[in-house]
Amino acid sequence: PTPAPAPSYAINFASVAINTNDTVTVPTGYTVDVLLKAGDLVEAGTAFAPGTFPTSVSQTAAWAGGNHDGMEYFELSGTDPNVGGLLAINHEYPDLNILFSGASYNAATATQAQKEIVLSAVGISVVEVAKGSDGKFAVKAGSRFNKRYSGNTDYRVGGPAAGVIGTTIRGMLNNCASGRTPWGTYLTCEETTNNYFDPSRAANGYGWVVEIDPYQELAQPTKRTAMGRFSHENVAYLSNASNRVAFYMGDDSTPGCIYKFVPADAFSTTNRAANTNLLDYGTLYVARFNADGTGEWRALVQGQNGLVPGAVDPGNVSQSTTPPAPVTVNFATQSDVLINCQSAARVAGGTIMDRPEWITVAPNGQSIFVTLTNNSGRRVTDAPNPRVQNLHGHILKFRENGDSPLATGFTWEIFLLAGNPSLTEANLKGNISGDYFSSPDGLRIDPQGRLWVQTDHNLTGNAGTLSGAASNMVQAFGNNAMFYVDQSTKQSKRFLVGPTGCEITGIAYTPDLKSFFINIQHPDGNWPVSGQPPRSSTIVVRRTDGQPVGN
Ligand code: FEO
Ligand code: CA
Ligand code: CA
Ligand code: CA
Fold it and tell me: What PANTHER family would the database entry show (predicted)?
């Protein structure tokens, strides 16, 4: 039987103070458990041990990779999902601290063994997790679901570019944030379009959304080329009563556009296997934001919207008041459009945004939020990107016409401008009420409609002027943190502060909302194990009295 979802509740936690402590700080009455560190075992083998470094991929292939990022929680048939399930976790980059003495890596001089080791530390981990009698979640060692997919795994290629880039690609890379499909597969997003760990590997093989079935029932992991090649951040979907669906995606480039992919067919709710290649057929669109608060989805289809041989790409017009020289691009086939997607988006009139990171869709389908993390280089503003030298970023909200995933138009507004009201510069103050932040990145609306925001500010980067002196991001905003933001009052409350050096990313939860899974990426102090190298980790945040998180 499916357990009842959490009863509706109001946010009640006491804000955590801004801080620079080398620990995870949560509100009074909450506790933090470390669930899976970089180098812990996912598959059978020998885990990382401090003081020794691996010499072969045979040692690291079984480990959790590094730089944990987006993740999703999946229910397991026959298991109460509030006490057990599957976690799929992205590994964006290796935790070099645990791979090599001296922690440096140079692709030009690396040995084949070193290339294989670093490539084993990206990709994803799937782990079965279960709550023990002590209330703590732990990885279930030996579960048949525990599996690594890495930079050394082979991936099938699906969609229009399959024949062009090859039918199989070795490795996925820079697995940034994530999403899921309505049929229970995991979508992991490659944020880079080149393999900088091993440049000898095929061009155009990276920068795709990869679909992986955590239950290992459906086809092998597949790069879905119909969804376009760019610096993919995450995926979030909106579906309707007829099981038609749209997948929203941001291109975290400086700068990049916002996209949606609409499969041509409805998904099946009764036959999972029937959805196997649904993501190979459909229409990719780019968002154009008009100054009047309306917007359009422009199809990225060869032959439409200027996507023809000899098309003129205006280039990145946002970073300089002197426009760049236009470039001629030949869009002769749909695969040309998908492989050169960033160029196609500009040709088609897509709006160049301040680095779109996560997108989330409200459970009622009436609002879609996207973080625009920052763009210090912006020199030419427009309505949806209103600040030059946008050091602190903003959050934009849009709504599809008719709340339909198939809509070709939408309305939009700026939800908030991030910043610190104490900064001297008017354009860096932002308009957050309550606990201010910079560089929103992760965000997710939970099943009860609450908006959670995670930050990734550049710790030593310029934040502006505080008390008459130049300040860096840590001085102006403390360590990276996670916030609850009320959608009506826009009041922000700091829920969690990370240890030194880290960004906070990844949000997943059990259906009762009593256990929140959160990732601590690239800590650089003594966390999580004192006296050992710092390690990126998945943590579980819960209340000691067993009530839902945030209540
Ligand atoms: Fe991997 Fe754009 O964050
Ligand atoms: Ca991110
Ligand atoms: Ca970021
Ligand atoms: Ca990162």
Answer: DUF839 DOMAIN-CONTAINING PROTEIN, SLR8030 PROTEIN
CA of 441 to the centre of ligand 2 (A): 5
CA distance 517 to 178: 14
| pLDDT at residue 1 in the model | 45
CATH of residue 368: 2.40.10.500
363 in a structural domain: yes
Q: Identify the nearest ligand to the CA of 439 by its number.
A: 3
Residue 450 within any structural domain of the chain: yes
191 C-alpha to ligand 4 centroid (Å): 10
3-state secondary structure of 328: strand
Q: CB within 6 Å of ligand 1 — which residues?
A: 92, 176, 191, 233, 252, 357
Question: How many domains would you assign to the chain?
Answer: 1
Q: Please say whether the beta carbons of 272 and 247 come within 8 A.
A: no
How close is the Cα of 126 to the center of ligand 4, in Å?
Answer: 20
How many beta carbons lie within 10 A of that of residue 112, not counting itself? Answer: 9
The reply to whether the predicted model has a pTM over 0.90 is yes
List residues, by chain if needed, whose CB lies under 5 Å from ion ligand 2. Answer: 357, 441
Rounded to the nearest angstrom, the distance between the alpha carbon of 416 and the centre of ligand 3 is 17
Q: Is residue 360 in a domain?
A: yes
ipTM: 0.99
For the record, the structure tokens of 318 come out as 């946002």
Q: Looking at ligand 1, which residue's alpha carbon is closest to its atom 1? A: 176
The residues, ordered by sequence, that sit 6+ positions from 415 with a Cβ below 8 Å of its Cβ are: 369, 394, 395, 396, 397, 487, 490
Which ligand 1 atom sits nearest the alpha carbon of residue 456?
3
Rounded Cα gap, residues 361 and 152, in angstroms: 33
**Residue 177 belongs to a domain:** no
Quote the CA–CA distance of 374 and 192 in Å, as a whole number: 18
pLDDT digits (tens, 9 = 90+) for 292-351: 999 999 999 999 999 999 999 999 999 999 999 999 999 999 999 999 999 999 999 999
Instruction: Catalogue the long-range contacts made by 100-109 (C-beta closer than 8 Å, 24 or more residues apart).
Output: 100/53, 101/53, 103/533, 105/197, 107/196, 107/197, 107/198, 107/199
